[in-house]
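A.,

Following up on our hallway conversation. Structure tokens first:
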């Protein structure tokens, strides 16, 4: 059974909000969000996960793309070979309104949050790799990105 996750695409002033992680190879980045728990709606999981990782529940917008990740198809993955995840990626926004972005319950290996220049997204270790061009161009024409690392 695949794990389902929901992630936030927050782009403000030509920057994208990313969760920063660190492993033995250095820093790597994901969109904020995470796994949907049993009995949770996508919106509930989105609010909970963005609150845990960002310190604020971000607004749930339109779903703009879906990605499969089947670990056995990606030798460079550090996930178990039987790991399968479906990521649902949602447009969101952030308005400071006195809130500071700071993780409340960060994921393992999460070392912070960053606003990264959207035009340089292809210069960092960001996953999924095949979403980079869609994010940089803010092109949501292709909704299903397939299986990708």
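Then the amino acids I'd put at each of the 149 positions:
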């Amino acid at each position: 059974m695949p794990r389902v996750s929901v992630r936030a695409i927050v782009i403000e002033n030509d920057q994208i909000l990313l969760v920063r992680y660190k492993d033995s190879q250095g820093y790597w980045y994901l969109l904020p969000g995470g796994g949907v728990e049993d009995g949770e709606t996508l919106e509930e999981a989105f609010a909970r996960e963005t609150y845990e990782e960002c310190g604020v529940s971000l607004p749930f917008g339109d779903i703009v793309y879906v990605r499969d990740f089947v670990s056995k198809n990606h030798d460079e993955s550090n996930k178990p070979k039987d790991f399968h995840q479906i990521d649902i990626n949602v447009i969101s926004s952030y308005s400071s309104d006195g809130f500071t972005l700071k993780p409340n319950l960060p994921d393992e290996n999460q070392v912070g949050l960053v606003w990264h220049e959207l035009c340089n997204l292809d210069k960092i270790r960001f996953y999924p790799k095949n979403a980079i061009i869609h994010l940089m161009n803010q092109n949501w024409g292709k909704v299903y990105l397939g299986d990708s690392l």
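The first helix runs from residue 42 to 54. Curious whether your intuition agrees with the design.

B.
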